[in-house]
Write a structure and sequence with these properties.
Helices cover about 25% and strands about 30% of the residues. The protein is of the alpha/beta class. The strands form 3 sheets. Strands 1, 2, 3, 6, 7 and 8 form a 6-stranded mixed sheet that branches. Strands 9-10-11 form a 3-stranded antiparallel sheet, with no helix packed on it. It has a two-stranded antiparallel sheet with strand order 4-5. Strand 4 and strand 5 form a beta hairpin. Helix 2 crosses helix 4.
Length: about 210
């Protein structure tokens, strides 16, 4: 009887030990994805790099600085047209032109804005000094040098080509190429930082 009681007691203790043992957990490997194409830099960072390449070649050519310079929108390299493209891509093309115009003026070039209206248009809530309508433009500039360029769409950005062209001879006076990540025009609300990684938040969730 004593041996039977001892056997039952050992069985109960063994059962308690079995149920009190914590569940085993398996640690799964975590895959970190580096966002190669994302950049914390604004578009101006890349246009400044382009301008540094472009205008360095002309540092000794003072005669070019004396000619009026006009800037036009950048275009996709294959269709050479912004028609039927996304709003983000059109914005990039126009912002590239405006940023390069700023870089040219800051480097002492005699730049003109071909979008200037003959008269400032007064609206009820703003003033409009620029237009894309030919009939509204001032059209009195003497620009003999054109700053423009092309871009090609890559998986996570754009290859941007910029050049200065002599209008009369069509000679390319200088040229430069750089890579621009496609997140440079994302709004601040869509950008999130985690450690050394950047994420974009949109309607389908976060993605690196």
């Amino acid at each position: 009887m004593r041996y039977l009681f001892a056997g039952v007691l050992l069985a109960l203790l063994g059962g308690c030990a079995h149920f009190s043992k914590p569940d085993e957990t398996v640690t799964l490997p975590v895959r970190q994805v580096t966002a190669v194409g994302l950049s914390p830099q604004p578009l101006g960072f890349y246009t400044e790099r382009l301008a540094q390449q472009l205008f360095t070649e002309l540092a000794q050519h003072t005669t070019i600085r004396q000619k009026q310079l006009a800037v036009s929108s950048f275009l996709p390299v294959r269709p050479l047209s912004l028609a039927q493209l996304s709003a983000q891509e059109v914005e990039l093309a126009n912002q590239l032109a405006d940023s390069m115009l700023t870089e040219a003026v800051q480097r002492g070039y005699d730049a003109v804005d071909i979008r200037l209206r003959r008269e400032v248009l007064l609206q009820t809530d703003h003033e409009q000094g620029f237009s894309r309508q030919l009939t509204a433009l001032k059209q009195q500039h003497q620009a003999r040098v054109l700053l423009s360029g092309t871009y090609s769409v890559q998986e996570d950005g754009f290859i941007v080509n910029v050049r200065l062209i002599d209008v009369d001879s069509q000679k390319v006076l200088a040229a430069a190429t750089d890579y621009v990540p496609d997140n440079v025009l994302w709004s601040a609300e869509k950008m999130r930082t985690r450690g050394n990684y950047l994420y974009r938040s949109d309607r389908i969730g976060e993605r690196p």
